[in-house]
Amino acid sequence: MTSSTLAPVHVIGGGLAGSEAAWQLARAGVPAVLHEMRPLRVTEAHESDRLAELVCSNSFRSDDAEHNAVGLLHEEMRRCGSLIMAAADASRLPAGGALAVDRDAFAGRVQAAIEGEPLVDLVREEVTELPPADWDSVIIATGPLTSPALTAAIATLTGADSLAFFDAIAPIVYTDSVDLSVAWFQSRYDKPGPGGDGKDYINCPLDEAQYRAFIAALLAAETTKFKEWEKTTPYFEGCLPIEVMAARGPETLRFGPMKPVGLTDPRTGRRPHAVVQLRQDNALATLYNIVGFQTKMTHGAQRRVLTMIPGLENARFARLGGLHRNTFLNSPRLLDATLRLGTAPRLRFAGQITGVEGYVESAAIGLLTGRFAAAERHGRTPLIPPPTTALGALLGHIAGGAEAETFQPMNINFGLLPPLAGRLKGRERKHAYCRRALDELTAWQSGGAVGTNAAE
């Protein structure tokens, strides 16, 4: 059956997962209709109408495919022809061992690719109800900011309340407002990483007295007031606001985003008591974001507290931090092995709404749903990636591997992969995980015996 005789698959949501799903459908010769509600309806976090806009950090985290689980996921997606990874690689900024991107260039590349793909029809409209019955194959990739109307419709259909958590946004400062007589450029342990030179971050040092004063001001700062229905919504542990971390103990930040390890203040020749790092946010290097400094402080409090940091006394902010509510399903209870809704199998879900956390994880689930839906359109049973791969492990976690009663959003990590034989440790163990995963990914891509048939 050729693409001209195939009915389209409808993809709702033009974020990372939806854009990736539509791209994978087109690559498989299946028409896709990509529905994106912006700019007709805006969200609390987006600033433009571009596809795949990055609303939080500009980092895809580690790009080490030999010793890091997220770096492994990057590589697996590259080998699967990921649009999101191709756009990220083409928009790369210096960031040590991490993959950080110019967010404007990244979104521009994704949108240009989708708009230039003949098999993808981009429709700017809001889907406020469950898709009509004649949409026999649908991927819902509306992300953490699913419109209230569609969220209510999904909740009614599933018979279960959608879960939710808060996600906080880090501030961005203008580079020329940072005092470089105090701050300095250095990557942790001088690690250059792809496209970097070992001096990819701006580092702002704090001595013990400055650190204590900063923590005190942080704990006393005015924060965003929650509405009544928001008060019991949990945070995602991997993206806690700094004031929430600080409330857990005075040393918490010094072992988290303000850890000084691997850094040396050139003025003293010693490691500081604590360090605030800034990472390049655009290709012109005119903007840097404050790494790990997601916050729910009010804007006024942010200006007062953040300018206490040495080197940022006169900082000008291109964007202050913020807070938005993310929505996700109890996927282990609701979705099958190919992410179809048990009560309505014509519907698949992709991205953060499934309970994965992170840009690359969201795009990875979009990649898989696109491939699964394409296989069905061609009359084939989808082949699930083996659990020893990062793709398969992430899928397995949300599609039944996690405990439904305690399900929370999850980043990719080696703990989701089946254990290795033997007693390997440290980097040797991580390397073995990555080597096994990429070997079995190759077999899965070739249609070999490795992997699971969705019909089994």
Structural notes for this entry:
The protein is of the alpha+beta class. It folds into 2 domains: 3-162 and 329-453, FAD/NAD(P)-binding domain (3-Layer(bba) Sandwich); 168-323, Elongation Factor Tu (Ef-tu), domain 3. 30% of the residues lie in helices and 17% in strands. The chain is built from 12 helices and 19 strands. The protein has helices at 16-27, 69-79, 83-90, 103-115, 148-158, 208-220, 242-246, 299-306, 331-334, 359-377, 390-401, 426-445; strands at residues 9-12, 32-36, 59-62, 92-93, 98-101, 120-124, 138-140, 163-169, 172-174, 184-185, 201-206, 274-280, 287-290, 317-319, 322-328, 340-341, 344-349, 383-384, 452-453. The strands form 5 sheets. It has a 6-stranded mixed β-sheet, covered by helices on one side. Helix 1 runs parallel beside helix 10 (359-377) and helix 3 (83-90) packs across helix 4.
Indicate the mean pLDDT.
89
Largest sheet: 6 strands, mixed
Low-confidence stretches: none
- Strand coverage percent: 15-25%
Shape annotation: globular
Structural class: alpha+beta
Q: What is the topology, as strand order, of the major beta sheet?
A: 6-2-1-7-17-16
Q: Assembly state here? A: single chain
Query: Total number of helical segments?
Result: 12
Distance between the termini: 25 Å
Q: How many distinct beta strands? A: 19
CATH homologous superfamily heading of the largest domain: FAD/NAD(P)-binding domain
**CA-based gyration radius:** 22 Å
What fold name goes in the CATH topology slot of the largest domain?
FAD/NAD(P)-binding domain
CATH class identity of the largest domain:
Alpha Beta
Total of domains: 2
Helicity level, as a percent range?
A: 25-40%
CATH architecture heading of the largest domain = 3-Layer(bba) Sandwich
